[in-house]
Design goal:
This is Cullin-4A. Helices cover 65% and strands 5% of the residues. It is mainly alpha-helical. The protein folds into six domains: 180 residues, Cullin Repeats (5 helical Cullin repeat like); 71 residues, 5 helical Cullin repeat like; 187 residues, 5 helical Cullin repeat like; 65 residues, no CATH class; 103 residues, Ribosomal Protein S5, domain 2, CATH 3.30.230; 79 residues, Orthogonal Bundle (Arc Repressor Mutant, subunit A), CATH 1.10.10.10. The longest helix has 31 residues. It is elongated, with a radius of gyration of 49 Å.
Amino acid sequence: VSSFTERPKLPDNYTQDTWQKLHEAVGAIQSSISIKYNLEELYQAVENLCSYKVSATLYKQLRQVCEDHVKAQILQFREYPFPHAQKWSCTDSLDSLLFLKKINKCWQDHCRQMIMIRSIFLFLDRTYVLQNSMLPSIWDMGLELFRNHVISDKQVQNKTIDGILLLIERERNGEAVDRSLLRSLLSMLSDLQQVYKESFEQRFLEETNCLYAAEGQRLMQEREVPEYLHHVNKRLEEEGDRVITYLDHSTQKPLIACVEKQLLGEHLSAILQKGLDNLLDENRISDLTQMYQLFSRVKGGQQILLQHWSEYIKNFGTTIVVNPEKDKDMVQELLDFKDKVDHIIEVCFQKNEKFINLMKESFETFINKRPNKPAELIAKYVDSKLRAGNKEATDEELERILDKIMIIFRFIHGKDVFEAFYKKDLAKRLLVGKSASVDAEKSMLSKLKHECGAAFTSKLEGMFKDMELSKDVMVQFKQYMQNQSDPGNIDLTVNILTMGYWPTYTPMEVHLNSEMIKLQEVFKTFYLGKHSGRKLQWQTTLGHAVLKAEFKEGKKEFQVSLFQTLVLLMFNEGDEFSFEEIKMATGVDDSELRRTLQSLACGKARVLIKNPKGKDVEDGDKFIFNGDFKHKLFRIKINQIQMKETVEEQVSTTERVFQDRQYQIDAAIVRIMKMRKTLGHNLLVSELYNQLKFPVKPGDLKKRIESLIDRDYMERDKDNPNQYHYVA
């Protein structure tokens, strides 16, 4: 075992000589002149001193030398002029910049010197200082000295911070400034611990607040909303960049919050009132996107944007719906408007659920401000799309249009009005063979079924079923006719319609010729032979025929209504008849006959000549067969002059819906009372609201309840008039 040798004693004066050397070296570093000794030797010297327990003294001596040097630095700033005025003049500003550069150089020198000093005294830092938790490291000691003797000097500190704020203000006003100088000075304040937070940040945020408060007020007056929002965005980007480039990261939150509050938060309502409607009217997608993004940054911003968005939809939508002059374009405008708001939600509002839901509520609100009419017009719009001759759409496009219509349809409360008009138009399409495509018809039906349930579409489906069954019946009838001894020369096609499924048609008694009557009887015998107990009622208003005719130019065929047929067949018996004679012979009612004659003598294909000429058919007018009739086609369709769907017709459809509603209310009341036996008025009414699919006023419900009490379905409680009992 080798024995430990005793540590040799230090030569006399070693400590003092060595410190002298180190002191010199530190002095050289502080004066920026070259060091006489090599660094390795100095580092070794520190290590030697530390191993001989002189660390404490060494640390104190080093601290003293550094402190003396830092204290001396303050003198160069003392002779610096300090402006007394609050505002800086141009020379002050220049002065201030020179001052900042000087303080920055002082700081940079200090840091560089401390790094070198620390590298020489590294052993002391790693041993003695580490073991004494109360002592700051050599670097921290340097910071502490700089803070205490340079930056804590009130004048120096104020002038530094004033100078920094001035530079930032100039940069905000659009001037180019020395950003690296700012970065260096602000990181100095950050390194000196609380100086940045307490002395700089507070003042910086106050000045920012004042600047943007004034700027917000001024620009809201001067600029249009898109420009203003663009400016706010630019300011936020600039301040964000400031944080990245020279401010401490901890300033980001309060700084951005301050800009948002003063430029946005204080002006939310004003921005929306001044500019939202305009942006939406003009479909300014990028501006709306920017508005949404900016408003989403501020507390309560989205909420207030939502409210104004909803108001806009309701106001704009109401103008589409309530103006009767716009009825013919109402549905197309609704579809276009819906497309527009959908696009805005998708692109500008990031498909935000709240905006989608509120849009739906707003649509529902405005579309029901005018009861019944939108439902009726939607039904007619669908009719125009499903009718043959709608050249504008391929099957895919048609499907897409129907999907869009269903979305609008969903918002409507009185869906039974839609059903009534839809049924009427569907009947026309089916009976006149005017449907563009069976697939599209079926597709629309399944959409309605999906939306409103099977009960809603059962009658409509019944209409299709009738048409299918009629085809089968006609195949059998054709065979039946071949076995007849005298099949006649008229080819008869009949559609058998179940009364409950189809719209109600007013039957009209007209004078058919003997051949037609005979055929009708043949069919009746055939049909009732298969289905005894059924009753057939002929609907003359819906009949049509193909007539063959001979003119000087040759043969033609006419596709005409039954009424037109009856009029034209008269001209086999003679060449000229008066209005009164035709009326007498055909039995067609007055207004219907005038329209029929108008179509034959005043339309494009004039098979008859009216005397005297004129657009309208008057009493006493004569009608003459037009032997010189010419037309480029062989088969010509003569359209009945369309009486604009009369107000009476519209009213009667709407009234039928109203009547149906009465029955449904009665049935619902009886159903509920039968189940509950006894029920208070308010509970009965709320239960009815749950069950009924159409909008209804409390007053109407009250009338129905009274009516049921009168008819002994229910009775009032003797002691409590608000209580009802079911009468079995």
